[in-house]
Structure formats: structure tokens, C-alpha cells
Predict the structure of ABC transporter ATP-binding protein.
Amino acid sequence: MAKITLDNLAHSYLANPTSEDDFALKELNHDWTDSEAYALLGASGCGKTTLLNIISGLLQPSRGRILFNDVDVTHEPTTERNIAQVFQFPVVYDTMTVRENLAFPLKNRGADKAYVAQRVQEIATMIGLEDTLNRKARGLTADAKQKISLGRGMVREDVNALLFDEPLTVIDPHMKWELRTQLKQLHQQFGHTMIYVTHDQTEALTFADKVVVMHDGRVVQIGTPEDLFKTPEHTFVGYFIGSPGMNVIPAKVEGNQAYINGAELSLANTYAPLDGRVEIGVRPEFARLSDSEGLPVKIRRIEDVGRHKIIRADCFGTPINIIADEAEEVRADATRVAFDPAHVNVYANDWRVTPQGRAA
């Protein structure tokens, strides 16, 4: 297992980058703790796979260093980093049996035969391939082949890190849930440092101890699922995490008051004077309809999704969402929306503003 340090790391696919916009991966400085499970989460093209490939050694960064346990491995090849990587699409040896595929990483390192047999059986059971161990990989489905790839990645117990690049893309939805659970159990049992790339927030939030949210080549927040939900540090995190995502409304903020198109909203905290584009952010879970308090709202439609209702509305021309209990009656005279002040965040130029203190 390894602590992974990103030291002034940046990468451009251009030969002579001249501005920040030329970098697919903008400067990063982070320490990722030994033995934790991380998910790299973000939309396509945000830099997730670029960062993973730099960590694995498949790509040399344009700038900065990558360290494993404080040892500089920036220019070390993949084979010297002692990592295992599972890719988006299955990579298997078709002419080998399932057993031979799973055993290959161990045999390649001269492991004891009895240990190889035991470990292969354990992993085959974990990924549900114990009944196909003696079958050639060639005739298996893409689903089964990807499970072999996962198994090959997990079979070694001595790796510095396990890297997964959207490994469940070709897996059916039911098996995705099972394999995520098994990966989580593997991590709890052996304590590998794991990094899991995905654009699926459910995969990220159910797998990882910490989620690394990326946007436009940057890490915009690293935190637990609870951190990302309650205190998104960037408006993108608010948009991307949650279904529906956080409501973001243009505002003017003075002290512990926010003004939206002239209407006043009391905040739980006080703020210093702010420059630039100022907005408030509040999750739909912390909004409720009212007929007497809050901001004016116009309901556009109501969606009943079984567990709750999603109310689609407009607040001074800004689309917002409100989540109501399944049993709650949405009244026709509910023309206002009230926000829980304790769960309203303030943003300046997309970044969350730290309050000066609690409102009196």
C-alpha cells in the first residue's frame, strides 16, 4: 500500500502549452492517504483518466512529480510502481483459461504454487467465476471477461495501489452492485490504496472513503459523501452530486442577509463583503413550499418518483427543484419557497465562501 503525493502536477497534450487553458490537467497538490479508497468523479473530459494514467506510469506529466510513500516515481515505468490497473474494457488472454488468467500476475512473480491455487480460488469465488475456472476466456461474454480483468487486478495482495478506470461499464446493473460491494469488502479486508475512476455518482459514493471531484482539469473537492452533499466547495459539486442537484440562485449577500431580486432571505451565518459573481446554493431536500414565507415561486410541474415528489419551479426566472415527501399534498396556494438557513451555502465565482461566524 502507498501514500500517493501529487506535487505541482500538471499535464498538457500540447507540445508547447502557453496558458492554463492548454492543460488537460491543471496544477494539483494533494496527498492521498495510504490504505484509503478514493473515487475520481467527474464528467467526461474532466481529466480523470489523464490523472489515473500519470499515477500508473502510462503517461509522463508535463510538470511536477508523483510520489509513492515519498519516493519520486515520476519517471519510473509502470512495472516498477508495483500497481495493478483494470481498464474500462476487458483485457484478457483469450487462449488461456479463467484459472490461468487469474493466476498469471502471481506466476509472473514466482509465487508459490499452493498460494497461487488458494488465491485464484478466493478471487474466483468473489467475482462469481468459480464454475468457469477451466473454460477458455475466448468463449465468454464481455461481462465475464471484465470480471476476469477485475479478478486479475485484485489477485495480488502486495500492490502499492489498485487503479480502476470505469471498470464496470460493460457489467449488467445487478452485477455492478455486487461487484462494487465486493470491491469494498476487499478494501476493508486488505487495506489496499484504491483509486476508482467513474462518471457515475452512485458508483463513487457507494465505493469510496473519499470522493475526488474533478471539473475542467481541476480537483474541486475531496471529501466524504456527506461532505459533498452538505457543503459542496464548488457549484459544480453541487450540480453533479445529488438527484436533482443543488439549486444555485444569483444573489447579493450583506452580512447575514441575502437579497434575490430585491427579496430578502435570512442566513444562518454572516459573510464579509463579496466581489464577483455571488450566488446562494441550497439542496432541494432543504427547500419547502409555503403560502406565507420565503421567496416567490412559480410551480411548473410535479414529478412523483415513488419515494418522494420533485417539484420543478421558477424563482425569479431561475429554475429550482424542491423535494417533498410522497404523502405531502402540494397545495395550489403554495406560491413561495422557504429554505432552511442552516443549509444555505454562499458562493463567489463558483467557490464556496467560508462564513465569518454565526448570525446573531
Notes: The first helix runs from residue 48 to 56. Helices lie at 48-56, 98-107, 113-127, 142-154, 173-190, 201-207, 225-230, 235-240. The longest strand covers residues 252-260. The two ends are 48 Å apart (CA to CA).
